[in-house]
Amino acid sequence: MGNTFAFAESRGGxxxxxxxxxxxxxxxxxxxxxxxxxxxxxxxxxxxxGQAEQLARHGADLITVVEHAGLERYNPxxxxxxxxxxxxxxxxxxxxxxASAQGRDLAPRxxxxxxxxxxxxxxxxxxxxxxxxxxxxxxxxxxxxxLRLTGSPALISLRPGAVAAAEARGGGRVEQAxxxxxxxxxxxxxxxxxxxxxxxxxxxEAPVIVSGGRGLRAAEHFALVEALAxxxxxxxxxxxxxxxxxxxxxxxxxxxxxxxxxxPDLYVAVGISGAVQHLAGMRTAKTIVAINKDxxxxxxxxxxxxxxxxxxxxxxxxxEEIRKAKAGA
Amino acid sequence: MKIAVxxxxxxxxxxxxxxxxxxxxxxxxxxxxxxxDFDGYAIEVGLRMIExxxxxxxxxxxxxxxxxxxxxRKSFSMGAERGVHLRADTIPSDGLLIARALAxxxxxxxxxxxxxxxxATDSAAGIVGPMTAQLMGLPCVTAISQLxxxxxxxxxxRELEGVAEVVTFPLPAVLTIDEGIARARLPSLKGIMAAxxxxxxxxxxxxxxPHLTVERMELPAERSGGRIVGEGPDAVxxxxxxxxxxxxxx
Lengths: 329, 250
Hints:
Distance between the termini of chain A: 49 Å
Strand order of the largest sheet of chain A: 7-11-6-1-4-5-12
Shape of chain B: globular
Distance between the termini of chain B: 56 Å
Number of strands of chain A: 18
Helix content of chain B: 25-40%
Strand content of chain A: 25-35%
Number of helices of chain A: 9
Radius of gyration of chain A: 22 Å
Oligomer: heterodimer
Strand content of chain B: 25-35%
Radius of gyration of chain B: 21 Å
Order of helices and strands of chain A: EEEHEHEHEHEEEEEEEEHEHEHEHEH
Largest interface: A-B, 100 and 85 residues
Helix content of chain A: 25-40%
Structural class of chain B: alpha/beta
């Protein structure tokens, strides 16, 4: 059985959680396929080599470090060429990426460069003999497909959070390598990285999401939603399409069929009636709370807990109680 | 300015649907099909570019069975000028096969921009656009939420987790379009009339052997839900108690 490969995603000189998830998945694939090493690759500006130890702690046996001043920001062409060259030379059984914003850009380029098929946004995988069997949500989470991925290496991008990063001691050998394409030769250049401000937690990574709909009646009333999110301390703020269409919140906050699809531990829907398009984006949350004045609103049919009434009275009270509960905890 | 927009005909899953007897596809009974949402934004972006340049055309390219011609016609009624139908019995799950067929069609087309939706709303893979770019050796920016073109160069913005990137690139280029850039216009009556006279070139494509195939399709378990804790702010303490002791999420 061959070795397995993981691309270790970084940003701003630090590894992201999804890097450890990819290494964990590669290690698991190696274990069930009867052994072989886990090889990880990390690219970045000089100094990124300091991150290699963390990959070893999650099970990487060999860490290839590609340092270059031109790789401080993501450089799609240079990184894709470098990763494709590494995978092509390694005779790997499988290669794992994150289905993050960067990974969704990178993995298909690498796959096309290698002429190999890619299973995208995978939430679970197993091996049946030589074949990977993967699961992937389709129709905005309203159905799940099980796919058969043949060929070697099998290329898989993993939905963030689908495989929990786990520590395991790897060999941790470190080797330096050069980019396969000089970053300065790339045609696509990331010139700026903008901090969007606002919530520090991303919707895809936050354990709690507080989301607002038309029931809030005006953009400034989102302060109520923000305050409740702040009381939780680990919450991001989302919105319905009606709200982002009206410009009350940026389009990037939209949860639903055409926005983000999220699966937090707790989803609090404030003034949201529950249009099908919105439910498609949040129905896989572990626990759903709904606050709405209309007792017949569809959101109550899928909510685990509902309170019927005026959100302008209920949400401030809930914020206060959550703050108390958190202080006591 | 010559712009290609690659679109996909997808089931409208805002409606109720069921799994077919084969256990791996949707039951076609009662199913309606439409343009994938993000592809509608891509067409809108293309049309605006042409309107701004005051010259050029938007060409629609779609792969699949004959029924995709209906979706190409809808794009015509929005303002696209021509269509190319790459005829295949089914749309494969293996995106690489689609990307190869598209790259072969696009390579001699002389396009300044090739646009895709960020992903199709049915298969939700989002890989055909960047794969096609890679096969053609063209610059590519994925999931863009803003775009400006001037003097043969483009500047785009992409949303990442918590931050955004500003990206510059030369034309010709491949772009995939995210939510937030432009709402798709509705077909006008004049557009619908004009669409009837526009031409679709239909040609068969040979897709080759897929390495990614569907084994099963399932609906997720229904949520039981539906429990009203109470009415008004007085129900809040009970809700918090349940979140703590029953759901164990705080």
